[in-house]
Design goal:
- This protein is an all-alpha fold.
- The chain has eight helices and no strands.
- Helix 2 crosses helix 3 and helix 4 crosses helix 5.
- The longest helix is centred in the middle third of the chain and has 25 residues.
């Protein structure tokens, strides 16, 4: 959202990019084995949960397209029961082809906002904000968003 839209909200919540641990859990819940999920968590630094979900959705589409192709060619005689699984190789390929949606301008806006609120690393160098995102500097590693919202509203 641009600055004009953001000004119209009375309460602003900083939703950080997911930490490496949060990304690992995401990949595990998407059906990826733990050892691969750990590697994918490292490779997906700087991606939002929405970005990661888009990768999973594309992997589902690739799996279904492969099934249809195999049915059309006669390689498969009946459709196997689909349990929402994703192919690890599809996920790796799609992740490699994908880019985080957080633009440099968005990261700069978050960085400036975080500096004012004391949540970002103190540095004068804004030139390489994507590097900061890749190093998980925009993530809050062990604090869940739900816990932050509960604290903010006194739940």
């Amino acid at each position: 959202l641009d600055g004009g839209v953001l000004r119209r909200f009375q309460t602003k919540l900083y939703v950080p990019l997911p930490s490496k641990k949060a990304r690992r859990v995401f990949w595990e819940r998407a059906g990826i084995v733990k050892s691969a999920a750990k590697k994918l968590a490292e490779k997906s630094a700087g991606f939002s949960f929405s970005d990661l979900q888009a990768v999973v959705d594309k992997a589902h589409d690739a799996y279904r397209a492969r099934l249809i192709e195999q049915l059309d060619s006669g390689e498969l005689k009946k459709v196997p029961q689909y349990k929402g699984e994703v192919d690890l190789e599809d996920v790796k390929r799609i992740l490699k082809e994908s880019r985080p949606t957080a633009s440099h301008a968005t990261l700069e806006l978050l960085w400036d906002w975080g500096q004012k609120c004391g949540q970002m690393p103190e540095t004068e160098d804004k030139a390489d904000l994507h590097k900061l995102a890749k190093e998980d500097k925009f993530a809050l590693p062990e604090v869940s968003l739900l816990d932050r919202v509960k604290g903010l509203f006194g739940f």
